[in-house]
Every structure is written in C-alpha cells, then in structure tokens.
Design brief:
By secondary structure, the chain is mostly beta strands. It is built from no helices and 12 strands. The chain starts with 18 loop residues before the first strand and ends in a 9-residue tail after the last strand.
C-alpha cells in the first residue's frame, strides 16, 4: 500500500457542489476517507453570502482549526460571535458550541478548510459531535 494519497477536491469555486456530513450539507466535503487519513480530519467548505450552517455542534475530544481562504463570515462560539475573513485561522477547542455563517454582505462565498484532530487515530475516536438543529437552539443571526 502506498504511503501517500492524492484526491482532487476541485477548485475552491467548485466546492459548493460537494455534499457531506450527517445532514448531507451542500458545500461540505470530508477528505478523511478519500485520503485514508488516520490521525486528523480535513474538510473543504463553502457557503454563499447569507447562508449559514443548519446546526450547532460541540466536540468532546476533537479540536478544530478553521482556515478561511475567501469571503467574510462569522463564527458563533458559545456566547461569542467572531468575525472571520481571508487569512483568519481560528482554533476551537473541546466543549465549545459552534456554528458559522457567510455574511449577507460578503462579496464572495465564504470558503474555508477545517482541520480536526484528537491526539489519537481518528478511527479510534467515536463520532462525538451532537448536532443541535437551529430550530431547537436559535442561531444568533436569526
């Protein structure tokens, strides 16, 4: 077996066509299986201006690093709202409820890469996100 893998995600402008995650979210592609990642996970993501995640979630084990490459947005982190833009690198630790949106005024879609890790093989870490639909916990932007 090779010790390297290559998977073409397409250009960032094509990421909206990906569908992934528990809610089959458009604009989300987990690369873990495509690249046989063992110790960390990666997703590529896109939201159009005014779009938001359909859920909140928190991890008990994983920490995540969000790298924004295009567009302007906001992350809701527990009771805080953090503005992000191209070049923002946002680390979110365990136990923090999170959600995100692309600002309605963003001139481009918000595109970002999410890297997550837990200090153990991903296969040994149970899926620990507990999504809470925004109909059950309103998002701060309505």
């Amino acid at each position: 077996m090779k010790k390297w893998s290559l998977f073409e995600t397409g250009t960032p402008q094509s990421w909206k066509e990906h569908v992934g995650g528990r809610f089959n979210t458009k604009g989300k592609k987990f690369l873990d299986r495509d690249l046989a990642l063992e110790f960390f996970g990666v997703s590529v993501n896109e939201l159009a201006a005014g779009e938001h995640a359909p859920f909140w979630h928190a991890h008990s084990t994983l920490e995540e690093l969000y790298l924004v490459i295009e567009g302007e947005g906001e992350f809701a982190l527990d009771d805080d709202i953090v503005a992000v833009q191209p070049g923002s690198a946002l680390r979110v630790g365990q136990g923090v409820m999170r959600s995100w949106r692309c600002l309605p005024t963003s001139e481009t879609p918000m595109r970002w890469i999410c890297i997550r890790g837990a200090g153990a093989k991903l296969a040994d870490v149970p899926p620990d996100a507990k999504p809470v639909l925004y109909t059950e916990k309103p998002l701060p932007w309505g």
